[in-house]
Write a structure and sequence with these properties.
The protein is α+β, with helices and mostly antiparallel strands. It has 6 domains: 4-16 and 23-291, no CATH class; 300-485, von Willebrand factor, type A domain (Rossmann fold, 3-Layer(aba) Sandwich); 488-585, Jelly Rolls, CATH 2.60.120; 611-682, Sandwich (Immunoglobulin-like); 693-790, Sandwich (Immunoglobulin-like), CATH 2.60.40.10; 801-899, Immunoglobulin-like (Sandwich). The strands form 9 sheets. It has a 6-stranded mixed sheet with strand order 3-2-1-4-5-6, sandwiched between helices. The longest helix is centred in the N-terminal third of the chain and has 24 residues, at 30-53. The termini are far apart. It binds 2-acetamido-2-deoxy-beta-D-glucopyranose (7 copies) and calcium ion (2 copies). Residues 713, 748, 750 line the site of one 2-acetamido-2-deoxy-beta-D-glucopyranose (NAG). This is von Willebrand factor A domain-containing protein 7-like. Residues 65-289 form the VWA7 N-terminal domain.
Length: 917
């Protein structure tokens, strides 16, 4: 097993104790090791990019934080999405200790060197393939999974004891030897001297440089190990009580080899950096930064889901106009969307999803949309939305345009599951509901109950269902899309259905700019009261609190004067309404639901499901945009406004807070966080708990053409009977699953979903599988959302190689007046994928590449540079992303080598010549 034990927080503490015990200056855990490596690798990428672009770059002061790194990269608005990427990768890393606690390969225990490296190198291939397809979320998931074993290697093996001062480069390559590993029969340890384990590894093992690692087992009497082998050590490990007694792990300062903890932890940081650098080499600087959640401009995507059936031509015109105006007004500013996503839907088709970072490509795609077909009234709006929800970045805003009811209503609970898991806001732009559209039968295609479905989905996501006539649509769309920026924060969101008279309050802190109120509903009135007690009624257009008020369809916007403090809004209406107060601020919060793990160790794991209602639960809350802010209160507030539950909050360091609730509400709720200096934010998303527990786990790699099994299990203490099961995936892959399971209260029922990716599915495609379980009567639903990557096994495991053809250096003492030049040949192996790119990693001379005449498999590289820049590093990458770095310097040219080199060149020249002939 595992890990940086106690240190890795959350985990592995005796029941009752809560971990995540990050004590500054003490042991380092997976969380800190991962964060340090990511911050470092990201800075390296930003510096390289700045150098390439000739802009300034300054390293921030240590210790680095996500905020400081995002600022150093010139992208302060990415601070939140960067933080999110780090947290997600870290959670996936921590999860390995829970899901694979006793699988030695994931921890380099029990001399599982080959198996451990296979997990890492396969994972690297998946990440590189995902990156090529822009599927960064899947790449992050895999990254967390493989950073765990690479970090464990330095704690659990004797690499550090062997005296190495650099990480083992062979752990991230599959075409080399890992090193000299101990045979199964070879004794590696002796008993420790009581508690003193400083000297328990056998001298011959150290002297011969043989790699070994500790055995681990938790079951008393049943845990064994081969004769003479080392153990992991520590109170939980039962193998360390068998001779040779004691252990060798360096998980914490007080571990068996705790005296080497810091050395091991620092080497784990360096090894993680090395792995990230390899991924960066294959991806290129910008995609690598995107993977880390860092992008120029806004970190938000502009995401449209558009009905393209016949009646939509006016609406599509409106989208065109809005897209043009957003692109024209935001390109080049810090609010420029970092990604554009379009999902068209029609009937019987929907998609494909189009994703681009180029605003002009997006404009062209939107311009080429035409409105045709659709047949009957209903269209596949939820299918389109499902696709958008699984591809848009976390925390996105999606705008869905339609004038028709959903024909695929059966996807409602899947869509809600994805809204909750992705914390994405969905705004519906509806032209053609009966409520407001009085223009004639053509426009009145959506009945009241059909519109209700869209309203419910909007409300679950904290978005708006804007119902307007076709002529009003451009104005409404423009209002709502223009305000979507990455610094948008939610101060309050609430809904009342049926309508009721209610007073809401929201806090405007000093960092908030442009506070805005959005109301949807019909026939309402309100009174706003500012922190100083001034008030203004909806009927009073001359008041001093509202700067502008705009009404279109069922949608009203109020732009407020900024007054810092607590505002009140009294709403009066007998009709349903929604209220949302937003503003712009660099400060916000991120959160994930956690639960105590069921595995052999006590720990916490992030949920991919609804939390259990009525019992205790927890959230990990992280503040973004500030390195000093603290959380003072976390509450779950019932969406009905009737109740709220406050948490006990424990700071975990690094801006993370654990919020422990003694009960999770059984009814819909949102999350509200308060902090110092009047900080108060609310989640956009509304959440639900469930009495059903659903778990699923499987390898996350799908091979095209090979059926892939996802075992899952449903459990409940309260519910029994036939549970309906539904499995949906966003790629339309064939899938087989049971339609129901019989559940006895208190027992679990298990089954399997089988997925098949077609043979021609490109490597790096990701697929999101949602498995839903619905209680009899449909009152309670839970789901698990899983993401897998498709990968072709392939045969190319070696990076391209460089061969020096010539190096001529006429460097004199005055470097600026002399030059040196280099000629190199780059090839990938026989039958391998071929050279994809050759770029400069270091050196500021001129690089030229060309293909050898008559042989596309040989890339010729020439480089010449001022002698002031004496070194060059060529980054060479093949088509599957294997990376090599070739280093040359003008300084160490040894004259004696020249004759041999010239001979090689002559011979090579002959070979190339004969290849041409
Ligand atoms: C542990 O043993 C080593 C030699 O085997 C010795 O140098 C060291 O002082 C001992 N440490 C303690 C705490 O006794
Ligand atoms: C930071 O990254 C660079 C480049 O990948 C690496 O050389 C260096 O060792 C890393 N620093 C640490 C502390 O790991
Ligand atoms: C879109 O813009 C064009 C030109 O600016 C205008 O003629 C047209 O009426 C607009 N369409 C809509 C639906 O706003
Ligand atoms: C779960 O069960 C409890 C007790 O039976 C009930 O009060 C609650 O409403 C149920 N929760 C859900 C989400 O159905
Ligand atoms: C279902 O799976 C769970 C966990 O995987 C296991 O504990 C349980 O015994 C299984 N139940 C059945 C009926 O197979
Ligand atoms: C180039 O490589 C491909 C694939 O390895 C091979 O099929 C082809 O024959 C090679 N071409 C030459 C000119 O060697
Ligand atoms: C190239 O790099 C050298 C040092 O590596 C530096 O002295 C020189 O100013 C750089 N030249 C340019 C044009 O950036
Ligand atoms: Ca239709
Ligand atoms: Ca290769």
């Amino acid at each position: 097993m595992s890990s940086w034990f106690v240190a890795f927080g959350l985990l592995l503490l005796p029941t009752g104790a809560l971990g995540f015990a990050i004590l500054p200056g003490k042991s380092l855990n997976h969380l800190e090791i991962t964060e340090r490596a990511i911050l470092n690798a990201t800075l390296q990428a930003c510096r390289a990019l700045a150098q390439a672009e000739g802009t300034n770059f300054n390293f921030p002061t240590q210790p680095y934080t996500a905020k400081a790194v995002a600022e150093a990269c010139g992208t302060p608005k990415s601070s939140k999405s960067f933080r999110r990427a780090i947290i997600f990768i870290t959670l996936m890393n921590v999860r390995v200790d829970i899901r694979h606690a006793l699988n030695a390969s994931f921890h380099f225990d029990e001399e599982m060197f080959v198996q451990g490296r296979k997990i890492i190198t396969e994972g690297i291939r998946v990440i590189k393939a995902n990156n090529k397809q822009g599927n960064f979320e899947a790449a992050r998931q895999k990254m967390g999974e493989i950073l765990h074993p690479i970090q464990d290697f330095y704690s659990h093996s004797n690499w550090v004891e062997l005296g190495y001062i650099f990480p083992n480069p062979n752990l991230i390559r599959s075409d080399t030897s890992i090193g000299n590993t101990a045979d199964e029969s070879r004794a590696t340890c002796r008993n420790c001297d009581g508690d003193n384990c400083t000297n328990n590894i056998l001298e011959d093992i150290i002297d011969e440089g043989i790699l070994t690692s500790g055995y681990f087992g938790v079951v008393p009497l049943l845990s064994t190990k081969p004769k003479g082998k080392c153990s992991h050590g520590g109170a939980v490990d039962q193998t360390s009580t068998i001779e040779p007694k004691g252990g060798i792990n360096k998980d914490t300062l007080d571990a068996s080899h705790g005296h080497l903890h810091m050395t091991a932890a620092n080497m784990a940081v360096a090894a993680s950096s090395q792995l990230l650098e390899d991924i960066r080499g294959a991806a290129g600087e910008r995609p690598f930064l995107q993977l880390m959640g860092i992008s120029k401009g806004s970190s938000k995507a502009l995401c449209f889901v558009i009905d393209t059936t016949k009646s939509m031509s006016d609406d599509i015109d409106a989208v065109r106009n809005v897209t043009s105006s957003i692109i024209n007004s935001k390109v080049g500013t810090e609010d420029e969307p970092s990604l554009y996503i379009l999902v068209p839907f029609n009937d019987p088709d929907f998609g494909p999803l189009i994703k681009t970072t180029d605003p002009n490509i997006f404009k062209n795609v939107i311009n080429s949309l035409s409105a045709t077909g659709g047949g009957d009234d209903g269209e596949l709006s939820l299918s389109g939305l499902q696709l958008a929800l699984t591809s848009a970045p976390y925390n996105s805003d999606i705008f869905l345009f339609t004038d028709a009811p959903a024909k695929d209503k059966q996807l409602k609970s899947t869509v809600i599951a994805l809204i909750e898991r992705r914390q994405t806001v969905v705004n519906f732009m509806i032209s053609g509901s009966t409520v407001l559209n009085k223009e004639g039968i053509e426009g009145n295609r959506i009945s009241e109950s059909e519109a209700e479905l869209y309203r419910e989905l909007a409300q679950a996501s904290g978005g708006l269902a804007i119902e307007v006539t076709k002529s009003e649509l451009p104005v409404a769309t423009s209002i709502i899309t223009q305000s979507s920026t990455s610094s948008l924060v939610t101060l309050l969101q609430a809904a009342r259905s049926p309508g009721s008279t209610d007073t809401f309050s929201f806090m405007v802190d000093k960092t908030i700019i442009n506070p805005l109120v959005y109301i949807t509903g019909r026939s309402f009135s309100f009174t706003l009261t500012s922190p100083t007690g001034e008030s203004q009624q909806s009927t009073n257009s001359m008041g001093s609190l509202i700067i502008t008020s705009q009404s279109v369809g069922n949608f009203q916007t109020l732009r407020l004067q900024k007054h810092v403090g607590l505002w009140k809004m009294n709403m009066v209406s007998t009709n349903p309404y929604t209220l949302k107060v937003i503003g712009q601020s660099p400060f916000d919060f991120l959160f994930d639901f956690f639960e105590a793990s069921q595995g052999p160790f006590t720990g916490y794991d992030a949920l991919d499901t609804r939390p259990r209602g009525g019992v205790n639960g927890s959230l990990l809350v992280s503040l973004t945009g500030s390195d000093s802010a603290t959380v003072t209160e976390v509450a779950l507030i019932e969406s009905s406004g009737l109740g709220e539950i406050k948490a006990i909050v424990e700071s975990q360091g690094s801006g993370n807070f654990l919020a422990l609730f003694d009960r999770i509400p059984s009814v819909e709720f949102a999350v509200r966080v308060k902090g110092n200096d009047g900080f108060q934010r609310q989640s956009s998303t509304n959440f639900r708990a469930s009495n059903l527990t659903i778990t699923a786990d499987s390898n996350s790699i799908l091979i095209p053409g090979t059926p892939f099994s996802v075992p899952f299990s449903v459990m409940s203490n309260e519910i029994e009977g036939n549970i309906s099961i539904r499995a949906t995936n966003n790629r339309g892959f064939d899938s087989a699953s049971p339609t129901s399971l019989f559940l006895e209260a208190g027992n679990s029922a298990n089954d399997t979903v089988t997925l098949s990716a077609p043979l021609n599915t490109p490597s790096g495609t990701d697929v999101t599988l949602t498995i839903e379980a619905e209680a009899p009567g449909g009152q309670d639903t839970n789901y698990v959302v899983l993401r897998f990557s498709v990968i072709n096994t392939g045969t190319d495991f070696s990076p391209p190689v460089c061969k020096l053809l010539s190096l001529q250096s006429n460097c004199s003492d005055i470097c600026s007046s002399s030059m040196w030049e280099l000629s190199v040949q780059v090839t990938d192996g026989d039958g391998e994928s071929g050279v994809d790119s050759v770029t400069l990693r270091q050196g500021n001379g001129t690089l030229k590449t060309s293909l050898a005449a008559g042989n596309d498999n040989i890339t010729l590289v020439s480089y010449n540079s001022s002698c002031c820049s004496p070194d060059v590093e060529l980054l060479v990458v093949d088509r599957v992303g294997n990376v090599n770095i070739c280093f040359y310097t003008s300084l160490s040219t040894k004259v004696t080598q020249w004759p041999l080199l010239s001979l090689i060149i002559v011979v090579l020249g002959q070979i190339i010549k004969s290849a041409i002939i």
